[in-house]
Every structure is written in C-alpha cells, then in structure tokens.
Amino acid sequence: DAGVTQTPRHEVAEKGQTIILKCEPVSGHNDLFWYRQTKIQGLELLSYFRSKSLMEDGGAFKDRFKAEMLNSSFSTLKIQPTEPKDSAVYLCASSLGLGVYEQYFGPGTRLTVL
Amino acid sequence: GDSVTQTEGQVTVSESKSLIINCTYSTTSIAYPNLFWYVRYPGEGLQLLLKVITAGQKGSSRGFEATYNKETTSFHLQKASVQESDSAVYYCALALPNYNVLYFGSGTKLTVEP
Questions:
Q1: Burial class (CB in 10 A: 0-12, 13-18, 19+), B108
Q2: Could you read off the pLDDT of B88-97 as tens digits, one per residue?
Q3: How far apart are CA A32 and CA B65, in angstroms?
Q4: How far apart, in Å, are the Cα atoms of B6 and each of A44, A96, B108?
C-alpha cells in the first residue's frame, strides 16, 4: 500500500498569496488530519476529518486556513492570504478510524512565505 | 486543556549506554488518555514507535519501552543500550479515548555518539 502522499514538498509564496497544499491519505483510511509544525509551537492540529466530515478545525487557524476533503482519497489545505508567520512544515496524516489510533504521516510540505 | 511536556530538547548519549527521555501529560478529561511515542528518523516521516492505551501497562518496540504511570502522569521512554541508528527526534503524544487527534510534546532530539 502507498503511504500518505503530499504535494508539493516545498512551496515558496509571497505575502498575500493563496496557496493550496494537497494530500492523499492511505487507501481505505477514514480519518484525515492536517498538522502544522514550527520550531516554537511544535506540532499543532489544523483540521480533522472523519469520513469526510470536518470534526475539528483547530480554532486559532479558522481565519485564513481552510481544509477540505473533496473525496475520501484527496484533501486540500488552502491558506489565504499567506503571511510570513505561516512559514512552517505542514503535515498530513491518516488513520483507519475510530478504535484504531496509529496515524500514518506524509513527508510534509515545507512552506516559506516571504 | 490536554497537553504533553517533554523537558529535554536534545539528548546526547554514547553508544551502548542507557537512555531515558522524559514525558509527562496533563488532561482535563475524566477518562485516561491513550499514550504514544512517535519517532522521526533523519530523512524519514513521522512514524509510530509504540503505544499504550491502558494505564499501568508497558509498551515496547525496537528495544524501547515506556510504562503508562497514571499516578505520576508520566510515560517516559527508555532503552537499555542505544545504537547509532537510534539517533532521531522522539515525540510523546496523547489522544483521548475514541477521539483520534494527537497532542504532541515538543520533541526530543537524540544523538547517539559512537
């Protein structure tokens, strides 16, 4: 089975731009997560989907961050407009679902906002 | 809220020596959380090392062990004899029962010297 894939692996954006990050979860997984990783804040949840329904949208990130699951095998994270403080590694993870807790992580997208 | 604390940002150990990486957790839930150690080896994605979902039990994998201590709210990671290949970043995490969102500690970078 293929693992979680994320594209692009690196993204450079100007302040104010709109960027879209993509994620394909492990086939058959029902839960999908977006996390952000920075040196200061560590790993923080951005969004959590269960069977394509949004379960949690990470409060502080509601403003300019929007995650969607277009179908069970594809998710996007849109940041609009980008700010320099959004520079971070964005991780997508998936798991089978309720009762099964291991999350499988993608390699991440490193975003730099100038 | 729910949180995990790892006090050591970096640890350096000589090969064949013992290791302990500290982790304590805090939760407002009346239910005991599920506890995990994830690891990121150089050049690889974040992956599950071990998990324990029952207070008082011990989990083990690849020579590492961690015991879920609900009295001290701790889940320290230990290994009797480390190898160079154990050099990685280790993250302690918790999830509430039946809710798969992971709350991560800040991570501990382990360097094993030959």
A1: buried
A2: 999 999 998 8
A3: 28
A4: 15, 28, 7
